[in-house]
Design goal:
299 residues, alpha/beta, Arc Repressor Mutant, subunit A, D-Maltodextrin-Binding Protein, domain 2, 3 domains, two-stranded antiparallel ribbon, 9 helices, 21% strand
Length: 299
């Protein structure tokens, strides 16, 4: 039994005519008829009822045809997977990114990715950094957008962009009238932060340590949008990455966004993938498109 003979059988079942089936399979009618008989002999059952002007499948023949369809579909999917692996730009990639980046980067980046790689399908997975790294190591993800540095064996990284933080304050806050502030002005202020597991929390804590600010006790948010709304409600102040403040994202009217003086606190975003990945040669090309798309926005 081979794939060619299964294809002959399925085509014959569809067309119910030896001549038309042979033509569709690009073989002579005697060749197709002979191969069907050989298949019947190998299986030890009759697959086709042969009668003048009336070709029908036997009961077992119909059952085998349905199984043969499944086999041929699976084989085609295997071939498609191989074709996509040979040409990653026309493949499917599973891309991980963390929640404080995805909603703010993707509106700028995805149109450029689609333009550069129209055959590429991106499956996006939003998870916290530890889960993304675990997914990369175990092969659940092909690549990821992460805050650098990333310390993990076997991973390749390419820096994409540096994103400044801005200060978000309630309109009534004493610092809200400033046009620019230094991190030293945060001394003894309480800052609203995200819950554990978010890389943005760790980055904001570093700023707090440098400035002498403290974490607001009794409060930890689960999302950047919660932080933004809490600032607007006058609950406190927080740090926001710049992309989270640019259109199409809207900021409440009662929130003031103020840039920092140099040295400006920031985070560095990079593309990360397994060094051994089949598409490893493609990811630098993807990184170049991502880098260019964000550079336009940040400038």
């Amino acid at each position: 039994m081979n794939l060619r003979d299964l294809n002959y059988l399925v085509t014959l079942a569809d067309l119910k005519h030896f001549g038309r089936a042979a033509e569709a399979c690009f073989v002579s009618q005697p060749t197709l008829s002979t191969q069907i008989r050989k298949l019947e002999e190998e299986l030890g059952v009759q697959l086709i009822e042969r009668a003048p002007r009336n070709l029908m499948l036997t009961e077992v023949g119909a059952s085998i045809v349905e199984r043969a369809r499944g086999v041929l579909r699976d084989v085609e999917q295997i071939r498609e997977s191989a074709r996509r692996a040979a040409d990653p730009a026309n493949a499917t990639i599973r891309l991980g990114l963390f929640p404080t980046l995805g909603p703010y980067l993707l509106p700028h980046a995805m149109p450029k990715i689609i333009e550069a790689f129209p055959g590429l399908e991106c499956l996006l997975y939003e998870e916290k950094t530890p889960s993304i790294l675990d997914g990369l190591r175990k092969g659940r993800l092909d690549a990821a957008l992460l805050a650098l540095p990333v310390e993990a064996a076997g991973l390749e990284t390419e820096e994409l962009f540096t994103e400044p933080f801005v200060m978000a304050l309630p309109a009534a806050h004493p610092l809200s009238g400033e046009s620019i502030i230094g991190i030293e002005q945060l001394e003894r202020h309480s800052v609203l932060l995200l819950e554990d597991g978010h890389c943005l929390r760790d980055q904001a804590l570093e700023v707090c340590q440098l400035s002498g600010a403290n974490e607001r006790p009794g409060f930890r948010a689960t999302s950047l949008e919660t932080l933004r709304q809490m600032v607007g409600a006058g609950v406190g102040i927080t740090l926001l990455p710049l992309l989270a403040t640019l259109p199409p994202i809207s900021t409440p009217a009662d929130v003031r966004l103020i840039p920092f003086k140099a040295p400006v606190p920031h985070r560095t975003i990079g593309l990360v993938w397994r060094r051994s990945a089949a598409a490893a040669d493609f990811f630098p090309k993807l990184a170049a498109v991502l880098r260019a798309s964000v550079a336009e926005v940040l400038e």
